[in-house]
């Protein structure tokens, strides 16, 4: 791994135990200038991951707890009449930060969820006809509870597509959980975490990602993967051009993470599940090939498409 990025992963790992792969994916998502969706049960460490990343990267951090009565103005900001100046003054909301944790995003109404769309895509907010740029870098980490839980609103496909990656932390290993039970709460170590880099270095690394080389053969492999999702009967919908570009951008960041100046097929395969699974769907009524959930579809995709065309 890149020594500097390895230090970041190791620092986060002192608090979030046994989740190195998820930490690396989250860091790659930031370096690729994307946004991250974490779907899991409550209490699995989603908020802790966001706090740790912001801390070690030296970035401003805000957290918004999404609830059914949250309004767009609670995120974007509000205009308040200043009697002294006889004019309205804009008071920025929590979205004007570098790392925004949108906690339990699917507990808010679609109108409030949509307040994030422009910010995530354009890195700006339009309020009362005036456009305001967001700080750089700008990284949204949203968490959502499983839709089977009460009080949740499913995210529309248009908003899911704004997230470069979607991951799940899952239960800890037996060894990690024993360490949690036997020792001090790792979250108490958050305040003692030191900045490994700062915002300027993060943006420098993001710029380096764009210079990671992808060969013609590698691009052929990406196109075959994308084309397979559009043509095979198991897929109800294929990857869009934006999804294809997201896959390559994430792979470039994964290559940088591993201290390479070029993308390998292994990089594509490493990031594909987190980039693809929230973008493609199978036919729920068709129970062929052992089921058509998103996870099985991504595994089927990787198994079916050859790295080198025969």
Report on this structure.
The chain is α/β, with parallel strands linked by helices. The chain has two domains: about 5-190, P-loop containing nucleotide triphosphate hydrolases (Rossmann fold), CATH 3.40.50; about 210-305, Magnesium chelatase subunit I, C-Terminal domain (Helicase, Ruva Protein, domain 3, Orthogonal Bundle), CATH 1.10.8. The protein is about 40% helix and about 15% strand. It is built from 13 helices and eleven strands. Strands 2-5-8-1-9 form a five-stranded parallel beta sheet. A hairpin with a 4-residue loop joins strand 3 and strand 4 (about 85-90). Helix 1 packs across helix 2 (about 20-30). The model is unreliable at about 285-290 (pLDDT under 50).
